[in-house]
Design goal:
By secondary structure, the protein is an alpha/beta fold. The chain has one domain: Alpha-Beta Barrel (TIM Barrel), CATH 3.20.20. Helices cover 27% and strands 21% of the residues. It contains 6 helices and 8 strands. It has an 8-stranded mixed β-sheet with strand order 2-1-8-7-6-5-4-3. 27% of the residues are buried.
Length: 169
């Protein structure tokens, strides 16, 4: 089982992936692929399960936007270190679609990218195998000043704050 960080604490991953041919084994939190959602929409519309979306790197957020209020979690799959599309997916979810549920980075989630992922709106991180949890938790303190506000921030940055930040460099 992967280690999952929810901003500042390690949490237990209670989500299971939906598989039509296997029992859920009593699980109540189920991750659904875009393909399964398209194949069995009536099943998921009527389901009492707590749903999450498993969005692949080439997934189009707009295609599932009508379902977003139903999802408690959107899991973004970081296939390779150099592919930045999940960062864009997270920004679309938080910015354009005002998604308030959890967004989890999954796959090649490396310590060096955690603070950037957080600034894009990702709040849960399923670490890649071999990543040190303690070092990963420290990663959120790596960047002390940023020019752009994070997506979770509601208030605009005041000019005085921006000038003060620039003066420190």
């Amino acid at each position: 089982m992967a280690t999952v960080i929810d901003l500042s604490a390690v949490i237990i991953d209670e989500w299971v992936c939906y598989d039509r041919y296997r029992s859920l084994g009593g699980a109540t939190r189920v991750l659904v692929s875009v393909a399964d959602l398209a194949r069995y929409p009536r099943f998921f519309e009527r389901s009492t399960l707590r749903l999450g979306l498993d969005l692949e790197v080439d997934g189009v957020v707009e295609e599932v936007s009508a379902w977003l209020p139903r999802f408690e979690l959107v899991r973004l799959n970081f296939g390779v270190f150099s592919d930045g599309r999940p960062f864009s997916q997270a920004q679309l979810l938080r910015g354009r679609f005002c998604y308030r549920g959890d967004i989890r980075a999954h796959g090649q989630v490396l310590r060096d990218q955690l603070s950037f992922m957080q600034r894009c709106g990702i709040n849960q991180f399923s670490l890649a195998d071999g990543e040190n949890v303690d070092l990963a938790l420290d990663a959120f303190q790596d960047i002390s000043e940023s020019y752009q506000p994070p997506l979770q921030q509601r208030e605009p940055v005041r000019v005085e704050d921006e000038q003060a930040a620039i003066g420190r460099f």
